[in-house]
Design a protein that fits this description.
Layout lengths: L1 H28 L6 H19 L3 H10 L5 H18 L3 H23 L3 H26 L3 H6 L8 H32 L11 H15 L6 E5 L5 E4 L2 E6 L7 H18 L15 H16 L3 H15 L9 H8 L16 H17 L7 H13 L26 H20 L3 H6 L4 H10 L9 H9 L5 H12 L2
Parallel strand pairs: 1-3
Antiparallel strand pairs: 2-3
Helix pairs in contact: 1-2, 1-3, 3-4, 5-6, 8-20, 9-10, 9-12, 10-11, 11-16, 12-13, 14-15, 14-16, 16-20
Length: about 500
Protein backbone atom coordinates (compact mmCIF):
# COMPACT_ATOMS: atom_id res chain seq x y z
CA UNK A 1 0.00 0.00 0.00
CA UNK A 2 2.81 2.43 0.89
CA UNK A 3 4.62 1.58 -2.35
CA UNK A 4 1.40 2.40 -4.22
CA UNK A 5 1.22 5.76 -2.44
CA UNK A 6 4.77 6.52 -3.55
CA UNK A 7 3.83 5.48 -7.09
CA UNK A 8 0.85 7.87 -7.07
CA UNK A 9 3.01 10.66 -5.68
CA UNK A 10 5.55 9.97 -8.41
CA UNK A 11 2.92 10.61 -11.08
CA UNK A 12 2.01 13.95 -9.48
CA UNK A 13 5.64 15.02 -9.19
CA UNK A 14 6.30 13.97 -12.78
CA UNK A 15 3.46 16.22 -13.96
CA UNK A 16 4.92 19.20 -12.10
CA UNK A 17 8.40 18.41 -13.46
CA UNK A 18 6.90 18.25 -16.95
CA UNK A 19 5.27 21.66 -16.60
CA UNK A 20 8.39 23.29 -15.14
CA UNK A 21 10.67 21.80 -17.82
CA UNK A 22 8.51 22.85 -20.75
CA UNK A 23 7.95 26.33 -19.30
CA UNK A 24 11.71 26.69 -18.79
CA UNK A 25 12.51 25.58 -22.34
CA UNK A 26 9.85 27.91 -23.74
CA UNK A 27 11.22 30.83 -21.73
CA UNK A 28 14.63 30.39 -23.35
CA UNK A 29 13.30 30.00 -26.90
CA UNK A 30 9.87 31.46 -27.61
CA UNK A 31 8.62 33.56 -24.69
CA UNK A 32 7.87 37.20 -25.51
CA UNK A 33 10.12 39.69 -23.71
CA UNK A 34 7.21 41.05 -21.71
CA UNK A 35 6.26 37.64 -20.36
CA UNK A 36 9.12 37.31 -17.91
CA UNK A 37 7.48 38.56 -14.74
CA UNK A 38 4.39 36.34 -14.96
CA UNK A 39 6.47 33.37 -16.16
CA UNK A 40 8.74 33.71 -13.12
CA UNK A 41 5.70 33.86 -10.86
CA UNK A 42 4.17 30.78 -12.45
CA UNK A 43 7.38 28.77 -12.28
CA UNK A 44 8.06 29.87 -8.71
CA UNK A 45 4.60 28.72 -7.60
CA UNK A 46 4.96 25.41 -9.42
CA UNK A 47 8.40 24.87 -7.90
CA UNK A 48 6.95 25.59 -4.48
CA UNK A 49 4.18 23.07 -5.06
CA UNK A 50 6.73 20.50 -6.18
CA UNK A 51 8.97 21.00 -3.15
CA UNK A 52 6.02 20.88 -0.75
CA UNK A 53 4.75 17.61 -2.19
CA UNK A 54 8.23 16.04 -2.57
CA UNK A 55 9.20 16.75 1.06
CA UNK A 56 5.96 15.98 2.85
CA UNK A 57 6.66 14.33 6.27
CA UNK A 58 4.41 11.35 5.59
CA UNK A 59 6.70 10.25 2.75
CA UNK A 60 9.25 9.05 5.33
CA UNK A 61 6.61 6.73 6.80
CA UNK A 62 5.62 5.44 3.36
CA UNK A 63 9.26 4.65 2.58
CA UNK A 64 9.79 2.89 5.91
CA UNK A 65 6.65 0.80 5.41
CA UNK A 66 7.52 -0.04 1.81
CA UNK A 67 10.97 -1.24 2.90
CA UNK A 68 9.25 -3.99 4.91
CA UNK A 69 7.23 -5.23 1.93
CA UNK A 70 8.19 -7.87 -0.61
CA UNK A 71 9.22 -6.04 -3.76
CA UNK A 72 10.54 -7.00 -7.16
CA UNK A 73 14.22 -6.39 -7.85
CA UNK A 74 13.39 -3.20 -9.77
CA UNK A 75 10.87 -2.21 -7.11
CA UNK A 76 13.54 -2.42 -4.42
CA UNK A 77 15.92 -0.33 -6.52
CA UNK A 78 13.16 2.19 -7.22
CA UNK A 79 12.46 2.51 -3.50
CA UNK A 80 16.17 2.98 -2.75
CA UNK A 81 16.38 5.82 -5.28
CA UNK A 82 13.19 7.42 -3.95
CA UNK A 83 14.67 7.33 -0.46
CA UNK A 84 17.94 8.86 -1.66
CA UNK A 85 16.03 11.63 -3.45
CA UNK A 86 13.87 12.28 -0.38
CA UNK A 87 16.90 12.45 1.93
CA UNK A 88 18.59 14.94 -0.35
CA UNK A 89 15.45 17.05 -0.58
CA UNK A 90 14.85 17.19 3.17
CA UNK A 91 18.33 17.39 4.68
CA UNK A 92 18.58 21.18 4.28
CA UNK A 93 16.46 23.27 6.68
CA UNK A 94 14.08 25.73 5.05
CA UNK A 95 15.79 28.64 6.81
CA UNK A 96 19.13 27.59 5.32
CA UNK A 97 17.67 27.22 1.82
CA UNK A 98 16.32 30.77 2.02
CA UNK A 99 19.73 32.13 3.09
CA UNK A 100 21.52 30.20 0.38
CA UNK A 101 19.07 31.23 -2.34
CA UNK A 102 19.37 34.90 -1.43
CA UNK A 103 23.17 34.75 -1.27
CA UNK A 104 23.62 32.92 -4.56
CA UNK A 105 21.15 35.15 -6.40
CA UNK A 106 23.03 38.25 -5.21
CA UNK A 107 26.36 36.63 -6.03
CA UNK A 108 25.29 35.70 -9.56
CA UNK A 109 23.96 39.21 -10.21
CA UNK A 110 27.21 40.76 -9.01
CA UNK A 111 29.21 38.25 -11.03
CA UNK A 112 27.46 39.23 -14.27
CA UNK A 113 28.28 42.89 -13.65
CA UNK A 114 31.74 42.66 -12.09
CA UNK A 115 33.24 39.93 -14.25
CA UNK A 116 32.90 42.21 -17.26
CA UNK A 117 34.78 44.86 -15.28
CA UNK A 118 37.46 42.41 -14.11
CA UNK A 119 36.68 43.54 -10.54
CA UNK A 120 37.80 40.73 -8.25
CA UNK A 121 37.94 42.83 -5.09
CA UNK A 122 34.38 44.00 -5.61
CA UNK A 123 33.16 40.44 -6.16
CA UNK A 124 35.21 38.73 -3.46
CA UNK A 125 32.90 39.43 -0.45
CA UNK A 126 29.93 37.90 -2.26
CA UNK A 127 31.88 34.78 -3.15
CA UNK A 128 33.16 34.51 0.42
CA UNK A 129 29.55 34.49 1.59
CA UNK A 130 28.66 31.75 -0.89
CA UNK A 131 31.65 29.60 0.10
CA UNK A 132 30.70 29.93 3.78
CA UNK A 133 27.21 28.68 2.95
CA UNK A 134 28.57 25.89 0.72
CA UNK A 135 30.69 24.64 3.63
CA UNK A 136 27.56 24.65 5.78
CA UNK A 137 25.58 22.82 3.12
CA UNK A 138 28.36 20.27 2.64
CA UNK A 139 28.29 19.43 6.34
CA UNK A 140 24.49 19.20 6.45
CA UNK A 141 24.49 16.84 3.48
CA UNK A 142 27.46 14.89 4.85
CA UNK A 143 25.62 14.28 8.12
CA UNK A 144 22.48 13.10 6.32
CA UNK A 145 24.26 10.93 3.74
CA UNK A 146 27.07 9.70 6.01
CA UNK A 147 29.70 10.97 3.59
CA UNK A 148 32.67 13.32 3.67
CA UNK A 149 31.60 16.94 2.98
CA UNK A 150 32.91 17.27 -0.58
CA UNK A 151 31.74 13.74 -1.45
CA UNK A 152 28.26 14.75 -0.28
CA UNK A 153 28.27 17.67 -2.72
CA UNK A 154 29.63 15.59 -5.59
CA UNK A 155 26.99 12.94 -4.93
CA UNK A 156 24.29 15.43 -5.94
CA UNK A 157 25.60 15.35 -9.51
CA UNK A 158 27.11 11.85 -9.83
CA UNK A 159 25.68 9.44 -7.27
CA UNK A 160 28.29 6.97 -6.08
CA UNK A 161 31.38 8.89 -7.13
CA UNK A 162 33.83 9.71 -4.36
CA UNK A 163 37.05 11.69 -4.22
CA UNK A 164 38.88 8.49 -3.29
CA UNK A 165 37.86 7.00 -6.67
CA UNK A 166 37.94 10.10 -8.86
CA UNK A 167 41.14 11.81 -7.67
CA UNK A 168 43.55 9.00 -8.68
CA UNK A 169 41.96 8.80 -12.14
CA UNK A 170 42.26 12.58 -12.56
CA UNK A 171 45.84 12.52 -11.28
CA UNK A 172 46.77 9.91 -13.89
CA UNK A 173 45.09 11.96 -16.62
CA UNK A 174 46.67 15.23 -15.47
CA UNK A 175 50.18 13.76 -15.43
CA UNK A 176 49.68 12.46 -18.95
CA UNK A 177 48.18 15.66 -20.35
CA UNK A 178 50.90 17.95 -19.00
CA UNK A 179 53.44 15.98 -21.01
CA UNK A 180 51.22 15.23 -23.99
CA UNK A 181 49.97 18.75 -24.72
CA UNK A 182 53.33 20.01 -26.14
CA UNK A 183 53.57 16.82 -28.22
CA UNK A 184 50.05 17.27 -29.59
CA UNK A 185 50.74 20.90 -30.50
CA UNK A 186 53.99 19.94 -32.26
CA UNK A 187 52.25 17.15 -34.19
CA UNK A 188 49.47 19.56 -35.15
CA UNK A 189 52.00 22.11 -36.44
CA UNK A 190 53.55 19.45 -38.65
CA UNK A 191 50.14 18.48 -40.03
CA UNK A 192 49.17 22.07 -40.67
CA UNK A 193 52.43 22.69 -42.50
CA UNK A 194 51.44 19.95 -44.93
CA UNK A 195 47.74 20.83 -44.99
CA UNK A 196 46.93 24.38 -43.78
CA UNK A 197 43.51 25.17 -42.37
CA UNK A 198 41.09 25.82 -45.20
CA UNK A 199 39.03 29.02 -44.95
CA UNK A 200 35.26 28.98 -44.78
CA UNK A 201 33.36 30.30 -47.78
CA UNK A 202 30.38 31.88 -46.03
CA UNK A 203 28.01 33.45 -45.49
CA UNK A 204 25.98 30.40 -44.48
CA UNK A 205 22.28 31.05 -44.05
CA UNK A 206 20.58 30.01 -40.84
CA UNK A 207 17.93 28.16 -42.85
CA UNK A 208 20.49 25.90 -44.53
CA UNK A 209 22.36 25.33 -41.29
CA UNK A 210 19.11 24.35 -39.62
CA UNK A 211 18.35 21.88 -42.43
CA UNK A 212 21.79 20.34 -42.02
CA UNK A 213 21.38 20.11 -38.25
CA UNK A 214 17.99 18.42 -38.57
CA UNK A 215 19.42 15.93 -41.08
CA UNK A 216 22.33 15.12 -38.77
CA UNK A 217 19.96 14.67 -35.80
CA UNK A 218 17.78 12.30 -37.80
CA UNK A 219 20.80 10.34 -39.01
CA UNK A 220 22.14 9.64 -35.52
CA UNK A 221 18.73 8.57 -34.23
CA UNK A 222 16.83 11.56 -32.80
CA UNK A 223 13.09 10.85 -32.55
CA UNK A 224 11.24 13.88 -33.91
CA UNK A 225 7.94 12.50 -32.67
CA UNK A 226 9.28 13.17 -29.18
CA UNK A 227 11.50 16.21 -29.60
CA UNK A 228 12.42 19.33 -31.52
CA UNK A 229 15.21 21.82 -32.35
CA UNK A 230 15.05 25.56 -31.58
CA UNK A 231 17.38 28.54 -31.18
CA UNK A 232 18.57 29.99 -27.88
CA UNK A 233 21.34 32.24 -26.59
CA UNK A 234 23.08 29.25 -24.99
CA UNK A 235 22.57 25.76 -26.46
CA UNK A 236 20.89 23.31 -24.10
CA UNK A 237 18.86 20.12 -23.87
CA UNK A 238 15.65 20.52 -21.88
CA UNK A 239 12.05 19.43 -21.82
CA UNK A 240 11.06 15.90 -20.82
CA UNK A 241 11.75 12.43 -22.33
CA UNK A 242 8.45 12.44 -24.23
CA UNK A 243 9.10 15.99 -25.54
CA UNK A 244 12.82 16.76 -25.57
CA UNK A 245 13.73 20.34 -26.47
CA UNK A 246 17.24 20.95 -27.78
CA UNK A 247 18.61 24.26 -28.99
CA UNK A 248 21.58 25.67 -30.83
CA UNK A 249 22.86 29.06 -31.98
CA UNK A 250 24.10 30.04 -35.42
CA UNK A 251 26.93 32.05 -36.94
CA UNK A 252 26.81 32.97 -40.60
CA UNK A 253 30.58 33.06 -41.11
CA UNK A 254 30.98 29.32 -40.36
CA UNK A 255 28.68 26.42 -39.57
CA UNK A 256 30.75 23.73 -37.87
CA UNK A 257 30.31 25.17 -34.37
CA UNK A 258 26.53 25.05 -34.70
CA UNK A 259 26.56 21.55 -36.18
CA UNK A 260 28.80 20.27 -33.38
CA UNK A 261 26.58 21.98 -30.83
CA UNK A 262 23.52 20.29 -32.32
CA UNK A 263 25.23 16.90 -32.19
CA UNK A 264 26.35 17.47 -28.59
CA UNK A 265 22.81 18.30 -27.47
CA UNK A 266 21.45 15.41 -29.54
CA UNK A 267 23.65 13.12 -27.46
CA UNK A 268 21.88 14.40 -24.35
CA UNK A 269 18.51 14.06 -26.08
CA UNK A 270 19.06 10.46 -27.16
CA UNK A 271 19.73 9.55 -23.53
CA UNK A 272 16.51 11.23 -22.40
CA UNK A 273 14.48 9.62 -25.18
CA UNK A 274 15.96 6.23 -24.33
CA UNK A 275 15.22 6.17 -20.59
CA UNK A 276 12.92 3.38 -19.29
CA UNK A 277 9.36 4.71 -19.82
CA UNK A 278 7.75 2.38 -17.28
CA UNK A 279 9.71 4.10 -14.49
CA UNK A 280 9.45 7.67 -15.85
CA UNK A 281 7.57 8.86 -12.75
CA UNK A 282 10.14 7.44 -10.31
CA UNK A 283 13.71 8.61 -9.68
CA UNK A 284 14.74 5.16 -10.98
CA UNK A 285 13.62 6.22 -14.46
CA UNK A 286 15.71 9.39 -14.54
CA UNK A 287 19.17 9.84 -16.04
CA UNK A 288 21.99 8.68 -13.79
CA UNK A 289 23.66 11.98 -13.00
CA UNK A 290 25.54 14.68 -14.86
CA UNK A 291 28.67 12.67 -15.58
CA UNK A 292 26.74 9.92 -17.36
CA UNK A 293 24.66 12.53 -19.18
CA UNK A 294 27.82 14.28 -20.33
CA UNK A 295 29.24 10.94 -21.45
CA UNK A 296 26.29 10.56 -23.81
CA UNK A 297 26.67 14.01 -25.34
CA UNK A 298 30.45 13.64 -25.69
CA UNK A 299 29.99 10.15 -27.11
CA UNK A 300 28.08 11.67 -30.02
CA UNK A 301 30.10 14.87 -30.35
CA UNK A 302 33.66 13.67 -29.72
CA UNK A 303 33.80 9.89 -30.02
CA UNK A 304 31.52 9.81 -33.07
CA UNK A 305 31.33 13.16 -34.86
CA UNK A 306 35.07 13.92 -34.75
CA UNK A 307 36.02 10.70 -36.53
CA UNK A 308 37.07 10.10 -40.11
CA UNK A 309 34.30 7.55 -40.58
CA UNK A 310 31.62 10.02 -39.54
CA UNK A 311 32.85 12.67 -41.95
CA UNK A 312 33.07 10.22 -44.82
CA UNK A 313 29.33 9.92 -44.25
CA UNK A 314 28.64 13.56 -43.29
CA UNK A 315 30.56 15.53 -45.94
CA UNK A 316 28.08 14.54 -48.69
CA UNK A 317 25.31 15.47 -46.24
CA UNK A 318 26.82 18.96 -45.95
CA UNK A 319 26.87 19.32 -49.75
CA UNK A 320 23.29 18.10 -49.96
CA UNK A 321 21.89 20.61 -47.46
CA UNK A 322 24.34 23.52 -47.67
CA UNK A 323 25.26 23.37 -51.32
CA UNK A 324 28.56 22.33 -52.90
CA UNK A 325 30.06 25.78 -52.41
CA UNK A 326 29.78 25.41 -48.62
CA UNK A 327 32.96 23.32 -48.44
CA UNK A 328 34.23 23.44 -52.01
CA UNK A 329 37.62 21.78 -52.23
CA UNK A 330 37.44 20.42 -48.68
CA UNK A 331 38.36 16.81 -48.04
CA UNK A 332 37.75 14.82 -44.87
CA UNK A 333 41.24 15.67 -43.61
CA UNK A 334 40.43 19.39 -43.90
CA UNK A 335 37.34 18.95 -41.73
CA UNK A 336 39.28 16.93 -39.16
CA UNK A 337 41.93 19.67 -39.02
CA UNK A 338 39.18 22.09 -38.02
CA UNK A 339 37.18 20.04 -35.56
CA UNK A 340 40.25 18.52 -33.88
CA UNK A 341 42.26 21.73 -33.51
CA UNK A 342 44.23 22.03 -30.24
CA UNK A 343 45.15 25.35 -28.60
CA UNK A 344 46.16 26.54 -25.15
CA UNK A 345 43.52 28.95 -23.86
CA UNK A 346 42.11 30.61 -20.78
CA UNK A 347 38.43 29.77 -21.26
CA UNK A 348 37.09 26.35 -20.29
CA UNK A 349 34.00 26.41 -22.51
CA UNK A 350 36.13 27.22 -25.57
CA UNK A 351 38.73 24.54 -24.83
CA UNK A 352 39.48 21.58 -27.08
CA UNK A 353 39.42 17.90 -26.20
CA UNK A 354 43.06 17.82 -25.07
CA UNK A 355 43.16 20.92 -22.87
CA UNK A 356 39.60 20.82 -21.49
CA UNK A 357 40.29 18.21 -18.77
CA UNK A 358 43.09 20.36 -17.34
CA UNK A 359 40.63 23.25 -16.89
CA UNK A 360 38.28 20.89 -15.03
CA UNK A 361 40.93 19.23 -12.87
CA UNK A 362 42.17 22.67 -11.80
CA UNK A 363 38.67 23.54 -10.56
CA UNK A 364 38.17 20.12 -8.97
CA UNK A 365 41.31 20.54 -6.90
CA UNK A 366 40.61 24.13 -5.89
CA UNK A 367 37.00 23.64 -4.92
CA UNK A 368 37.88 20.69 -2.69
CA UNK A 369 40.29 22.96 -0.80
CA UNK A 370 37.65 25.72 -0.62
CA UNK A 371 35.01 23.35 0.78
CA UNK A 372 37.40 21.71 3.23
CA UNK A 373 38.75 25.04 4.51
CA UNK A 374 42.28 24.51 3.21
CA UNK A 375 41.93 27.50 0.88
CA UNK A 376 40.22 30.84 1.48
CA UNK A 377 38.59 32.95 -1.23
CA UNK A 378 41.11 35.75 -0.64
CA UNK A 379 43.90 33.42 -1.77
CA UNK A 380 42.03 32.00 -4.75
CA UNK A 381 43.56 34.17 -7.54
CA UNK A 382 47.10 33.13 -6.61
CA UNK A 383 46.14 29.47 -6.22
CA UNK A 384 44.32 29.51 -9.57
CA UNK A 385 47.26 31.19 -11.31
CA UNK A 386 49.73 28.68 -9.92
CA UNK A 387 47.77 25.73 -11.31
CA UNK A 388 46.99 27.48 -14.61
CA UNK A 389 50.67 28.23 -15.10
CA UNK A 390 51.67 24.66 -14.27
CA UNK A 391 48.99 22.87 -16.29
CA UNK A 392 48.55 25.14 -19.33
CA UNK A 393 51.50 27.53 -19.27
CA UNK A 394 49.22 30.57 -18.96
CA UNK A 395 48.95 33.23 -16.23
CA UNK A 396 45.69 34.71 -14.93
CA UNK A 397 47.15 36.63 -11.99
CA UNK A 398 46.21 40.05 -13.37
CA UNK A 399 43.13 38.76 -15.20
CA UNK A 400 40.61 37.34 -12.69
CA UNK A 401 37.71 37.45 -15.17
CA UNK A 402 39.43 34.62 -17.03
CA UNK A 403 40.53 33.03 -13.75
CA UNK A 404 38.41 32.45 -10.65
CA UNK A 405 35.61 34.71 -11.98
CA UNK A 406 35.33 32.77 -15.22
CA UNK A 407 32.40 30.42 -14.51
CA UNK A 408 28.94 30.92 -13.04
CA UNK A 409 29.13 27.66 -11.06
CA UNK A 410 30.85 29.02 -7.94
CA UNK A 411 28.86 32.27 -7.72
CA UNK A 412 25.75 30.08 -7.97
CA UNK A 413 26.97 27.71 -5.25
CA UNK A 414 27.33 24.69 -7.56
CA UNK A 415 30.33 23.01 -5.96
CA UNK A 416 30.96 19.38 -6.88
CA UNK A 417 29.62 19.85 -10.42
CA UNK A 418 32.87 20.41 -12.34
CA UNK A 419 34.19 16.82 -12.14
CA UNK A 420 31.19 15.66 -14.18
CA UNK A 421 32.50 17.28 -17.35
CA UNK A 422 35.74 15.31 -17.51
CA UNK A 423 34.21 12.20 -15.99
CA UNK A 424 31.86 12.33 -18.97
CA UNK A 425 34.77 12.42 -21.43
CA UNK A 426 36.48 9.51 -19.68
CA UNK A 427 33.29 7.45 -19.60
CA UNK A 428 32.56 8.19 -23.27
CA UNK A 429 35.97 6.89 -24.34
CA UNK A 430 35.61 3.77 -22.21
CA UNK A 431 32.11 3.13 -23.57
CA UNK A 432 33.41 3.53 -27.14
CA UNK A 433 36.13 0.93 -26.48
CA UNK A 434 33.55 -1.49 -25.07
CA UNK A 435 31.26 -0.85 -28.04
CA UNK A 436 34.01 -1.62 -30.54
CA UNK A 437 34.65 -4.95 -28.82
CA UNK A 438 30.94 -5.80 -28.84
CA UNK A 439 30.30 -4.51 -32.40
CA UNK A 440 33.55 -4.86 -34.41
CA UNK A 441 31.87 -3.50 -37.56
CA UNK A 442 30.78 -0.24 -35.93
CA UNK A 443 33.22 1.99 -37.85
CA UNK A 444 32.08 0.57 -41.18
CA UNK A 445 28.49 1.04 -40.04
CA UNK A 446 29.16 4.71 -39.30
CA UNK A 447 30.83 5.24 -42.67
CA UNK A 448 27.64 3.99 -44.29
CA UNK A 449 25.39 6.12 -42.09
CA UNK A 450 24.09 3.15 -40.11
CA UNK A 451 23.98 4.30 -36.48
CA UNK A 452 21.52 1.65 -35.27
CA UNK A 453 24.12 -0.82 -33.90
CA UNK A 454 25.83 1.98 -32.00
CA UNK A 455 22.56 3.18 -30.50
CA UNK A 456 21.36 -0.34 -29.74
CA UNK A 457 24.44 -0.94 -27.57
CA UNK A 458 23.99 2.33 -25.67
CA UNK A 459 20.25 1.80 -25.29
CA UNK A 460 20.78 -1.59 -23.67
CA UNK A 461 23.81 -0.72 -21.54
CA UNK A 462 23.20 2.93 -20.58
CA UNK A 463 19.83 4.42 -21.49
CA UNK A 464 17.40 1.72 -20.36
CA UNK A 465 19.31 1.29 -17.10
CA UNK A 466 18.04 4.66 -15.87
CA UNK A 467 19.18 5.08 -12.26
CA UNK A 468 19.17 1.41 -11.30
CA UNK A 469 22.87 1.63 -10.47
CA UNK A 470 25.29 4.15 -9.04
CA UNK A 471 27.53 5.88 -11.57
CA UNK A 472 30.52 3.56 -10.89
CA UNK A 473 28.30 0.47 -10.97
CA UNK A 474 26.71 1.52 -14.28
CA UNK A 475 30.11 1.97 -15.89
CA UNK A 476 31.41 -1.36 -14.63
CA UNK A 477 28.33 -3.21 -15.84
CA UNK A 478 28.43 -1.49 -19.25
CA UNK A 479 32.16 -1.81 -19.92
CA UNK A 480 33.30 -4.67 -17.71
CA UNK A 481 35.61 -2.60 -15.52
CA UNK A 482 35.81 0.41 -13.24
CA UNK A 483 36.47 3.86 -14.66
CA UNK A 484 39.91 3.82 -16.25
CA UNK A 485 41.68 6.87 -17.70
CA UNK A 486 43.73 4.67 -20.04
CA UNK A 487 40.92 4.52 -22.61
CA UNK A 488 40.68 8.30 -22.91
CA UNK A 489 44.48 8.57 -22.98
CA UNK A 490 44.69 6.00 -25.79
CA UNK A 491 41.95 7.89 -27.65
CA UNK A 492 43.89 11.19 -27.39
CA UNK A 493 47.16 9.58 -28.50
CA UNK A 494 45.48 8.08 -31.55
CA UNK A 495 43.69 11.29 -32.55
CA UNK A 496 46.25 13.97 -31.67
CA UNK A 497 49.62 12.20 -31.50
CA UNK A 498 52.39 12.22 -34.05
Amino acid sequence: MSFQKLDELGHKLESLEHALSILGADEATHMASGGGEKRAEAMSNLAGMYHEQATAPEIADWIADAEKAELTEDGARALREFKRSYTNATCLPTEFVRRRTQATMLSEQLWRDLRAKNDWQGFRPALEGVVKLVREEAQLRADALKLAPYDALMDQYDPGNRVANVAPVFERLKTFLKGFLPEALAAQNRRLTERPLKPFAGPYTVEKQRDLGLAAMAAVGFDFDHGSLSVSHHPFCGGVPSDVRITTRYRTDEFLSSLMGVLHETGHALYEQGLPPEWAHWPLGKARGMGVHESQSLFVEMQLAHTREFWEFALPLVHQHMGHDAMRGWEVDDVLNRVNHVERGYIRVDADEVTYPLHVILRFELEQDLVNGKLEVADLPEAWDAKMSEYLGLSTLDNPKDGPMQDVHWPGGAFGYFPSYTLGALMAAQQWAALEKAVPTVRDDIRQGNFAPLNDWRRENIWLQGSRWSTPELMERATGEALNADYFIAHLKKRYGA
